[in-house]
Design goal:
This protein is mostly beta strands and 285 residues long. The chain contains no helices and 23 strands. It folds into two domains: 187 residues, Galactose-binding domain-like (Jelly Rolls, Sandwich), CATH 2.60.120.260; 82 residues, Sandwich (Immunoglobulin-like), CATH 2.60.40.1930.
Length: 285
């Protein structure tokens, strides 16, 4: 298991924008669905339904709606992500400067909504963008998140991710989001080297998911904290401790190896100071 700090991922800074090209995110308008899932997106739908087809569309006929599901006493927020089982996203050929889209958000108990883009070269991150919503948004509103590139690498694939998180612990049932018309816009020739830190605690959805045998788990620590990251089975038994350490502020990626675990669904939970959050992953062997 390896922990890689990534403090640059959540800082938003201005970039010099060149050109006016757009990347076609597969099914970015959520018009195509199969067996209750938007084609090209991983929803974690299975025994529980995390993401639904919505006719409340910004354009076209459909959008994607997520919420919070209670699994054996754990509240789990929706995860909507473009990635295959190898952790590789959709093809990208340029350093796109912004992740754009339209959203609605109904929070309960201080829950927050995240949108993120990870630009990759192979399975290595070379750039990232993040958008955070904390306030209710009853009608569609456009968001735009600037992509930061700390180096000169040109990505060859990208991953877009939407999810719900609780600020002080687990998210709350009743929190929902709707997203539609997601695009990547413009190119940048600026390689920023930001030195900022995350503003909020968060736990991202692992990728790839399902996986065999390894997966990546990204989390944010805005202040130095005692951090534990633990994997549980669905009966609540501890099966692995990934992190148990005092860590400085930053974004981290934990690489978890599931060798020794049977195929099935598991929960992973982070505790950092007073913050806790839980998500699920699936091991397939």
């Amino acid at each position: 298991m390896r922990i890689v700090p990534r403090a640059f991922f959540l800082l938003v800074m201005g970039l010099v924008i060149v050109g006016n090209s757009f990347a076609q995110i597969p099914n970015g308008g959520f018009e195509t669905w199969s067996n209750g899932n938007p084609v090209g997106w991983d929803t974690d739908n299975g025994l529980y339904t995390f993401v639904n087809q919505s006719s409340n569309a910004h354009a076209g006929s459909y959008a994607a709606q997520g919420g919070v599901v209670n699994m054996n006493g754990f509240n789990i927020g929706s995860s909507l992500i473009t990635a295959d089982n190898s952790g590789v996203g959709f093809p990208v050929t340029q350093r796109y400067a912004e992740l754009r889209g339209y959203y609605q958000f109904t929070p309960v108990g201080g829950d927050v909504f995240y949108a993120s883009y990870l630009a990759q070269l192979g399975t290595s991150g070379v750039g990232a963008a993040s958008f955070l919503a904390t306030s209710p948004q009853a009608t569609y509103k456009e968001f735009a998140a600037t992509v930061l590139y700390p180096g000169a690498d040109v990505p060859d694939n990208g991953i877009v991710h939407f999810w719900i998180s609780g600020l002080g612990g687990l998210p709350h049932t009743g929190t929902t989001f709707i997203v539609d018309d997601i695009t990547l816009a413009s190119t940048s020739d600026v390689a920023e080297r930001p030195n900022g830190i995350p503003k909020l605690f968060s736990l991202g959805q692992n990728y790839p998911n399902p996986f065999n045998p390894t997966t990546n788990i990204v989390y944010d620590i805005p202040t130095q904290s005692r951090v534990t990251l633990v994997v549980y089975d669905l009966l609540g038994h501890t099966v692995a401790k990934i992190v148990n350490d005092i860590q400085p502020a930053g974004r981290y990626k934990a690489v978890f190896d599931a060798n020794g675990l049977a195929s099935g669904t598991y929960l992973y939970r982070i505790t950092a100071g007073s913050f806790t959050a839980t998500r699920k992953f699936v091991v397939v062997k």
